[in-house]
Design a protein that fits this description.
single chain, alpha+beta, 6-stranded mixed beta sheet, 28% strand, disordered C terminus
Length: 252
């Protein structure tokens, strides 16, 4: 039987290389946070160390045993890396059996890239945008252009947008619904909404939030965000494209 993908708990989490606010690395804390979230799919940022061959900061061998999830299958940055440009996607094994994934190089001052995960009926693009707003704008334009070539799937973008403003820098996403569930950075006293989820036509946001637990405040400088999503039947969705009807977010 093909697993259903019409309901998904989607999450995004910047791990800060598993160093918490000050270090040393303690990836078991990050894995506990992910397990507590119980996501179907989670986009992770900063899963690798920054220097040298970019070795994994989150140990691949411990992921499935601790969280029940497995990493998406793609070519990482280096032989000992878990991610590409520090990013990976974890998902339930039955979803991974249906998934295909593409790496999307992005423009900008810094080396950046996104990951496009294709599941039946939906494409999820995981991203970690640049530190300069002009780069972020160019990166979002590139992502939207690339997504338009993937077919008629519904589209979700999620990750660390590195954008603190609510109505600047995100122009390329109009008319998608951009959801910032709440302040997620810095974790001990969150003030800024860097972490976001954007959904296109045919997707209903059932609920959403910031995962603000005691261990989450210790495990990274970001708190994870999450959203429970429902994919509307094709008969209820508008014509193909990224625009169209999405429900209001009941958490706002």
């Amino acid at each position: 039987m093909t697993p259903r993908t019409d309901r998904l708990r989607l999450a995004s989490y910047n791990l800060h290389k598993c160093r918490g606010m000050t270090g040393p690395r303690a990836p078991e804390r990050n894995l506990k946070v992910i397990a507590d979230l119980k996501p179907d799919v989670i986009a992770l940022q900063e899963v690798d160390l920054r220097l040298g061959n970019r070795p994994e900061a989150l140990p691949r061998a411990a992921i499935e045993q601790t969280t029940g999830l497995i990493p998406a299958d793609f070519l990482p940055t280096g032989e000992t890396s878990l991610g590409w440009h520090g990013q990976t996607i974890l998902m339930r094994p039955e979803l991974a059996a249906q998934a295909t994934i593409r790496r999307l190089p992005l423009p900008g001052i810094e080396p950046r890239g996104a990951l496009a995960l294709r599941l039946p009926g939906v494409t999820i693009i995981a991203l970690h945008l640049g530190l300069v707003r002009s780069s972020r704008r160019a990166q979002l334009r590139r992502i939207v252009a690339q997504a338009g070539r993937f077919g008629h799937d519904r589209l979700i973008l999620t990750g660390d947008f590195n954008e603190w403003h609510d109505n600047r820098g995100l122009e390329a996403l109009a008319p998608m619904h951009v959801l910032a569930p709440g302040p997620s950075w810095p974790a001990p006293f969150p003030r800024l909404r860097y972490d976001r989820i954007a959904v296109s036509r045919g997707i209903e946001v059932l609920d959403s939030g910031v995962w603000d637990s005691e261990i989450a405040r210790q495990a990274s400088d970001h708190l994870p965000i999450w959203a429970d999503l429902a994919l509307e039947p094709w008969s209820a969705a508008p014509e193909p494209g990224i625009s169209g009807r999405v429900s209001d977010n009941p958490a706002e």
